[in-house]
Each structure stands twice: as structure tokens, then as C-alpha cells.
Predict the 3D structure of the following.
Amino acid sequence: SLLLPKGATAEELIFYDTETTGLSTGAGTIPFLIGLGRVKEEKFEIIQYFLADYPGEPFMLESLKKEFPEKGYYVSYNGKSYDSHLINSRYLLNRINCKRGEEVDLLYLSRRLWKNKLENCKLGTIEEKILKIKRGPDIPGSEIPDVWFDFLNSGNLEKLKLVYSHNLQDIYTLSILLV
């Protein structure tokens, strides 16, 4: 890929996406689901880290840190502006040191390629119009924070399945989009 340094290998790529409690980047916004995709033993593996309650955040971040090599290339969609800052601030607020590798944000390239051809450059639009991918079970991103808050209050897992599916599909699409 022209987006990666010469010599970068598929095994060095970490595709990631977060599902959060809102869209701001303030201290109150928490990523409660962080998905990571990577090539491992010639297969594409996706791991999802879920925060079941606020007190578990330091444990989730410590577990996630083991998956974040310093020399990897982190592939995201709007990660440079949102996801990476949010993750970094959560590490900082929890006093956990975590250094990650370079960020490769596919949103900027997508805008350059398709902003004049599509009504918007949301990942879902790119999937449908450019990659011809039809999502399976899904939930609109705007509803995701409410699903987590409902889970915290009621323990209801049913709608969380859609959030997991949404996150998994975003990561899978990132890998296809990069190729």
C-alpha cells in the first residue's frame, strides 16, 4: 500500500475501532468496546475488548496494552482525529503508560478519492457504494451509547449483540478498504 512505509508487513497492521459513550473527546467519554483486527498465522483475527462497568476500565486498558506493539501500524477510520486521542486520554487518566505505533487513517484517503462521488464518506457509505458490501445485523452508530447505558442499568444483552456485530464489521471493512 502507498499508505504504509516500505517494508511494512501484514502482520504489523492492527485494524481498530471503538464504540463509545458519546462523540465528544472529553474525559467523560469512554470507549466501552474496542475491537482489534490483525493477520495472525495467515488468518484475519478480530478480538473485541468489552467494558462491562466503569470500575473495570483499568483492567481492560492493561489487557489491551498487551495487544498494542510500539512498532505496529494502526489502521483506523477517523482514528487520528477521534479514536486514538480517546484511547490515549483513557490511558493517561488511568495513569497507564502505553506507547503505540504509527496511525494510518483511511478516512482522509477516502475523502480525497470519493468526496465528489458520494453523498458522504461515512464508512457505511463506502461499504455500500464502493466496496459493494452489505452489512449483516447492524445498529446505527448514534444508538450505540444508549445500548451500553441500557446494559449497565438492566443487564440486557440482546442489543449488545448488534453493537458487537457493528464493531466487527467496521474492522473487517477497514482491512478490505486498505487492500
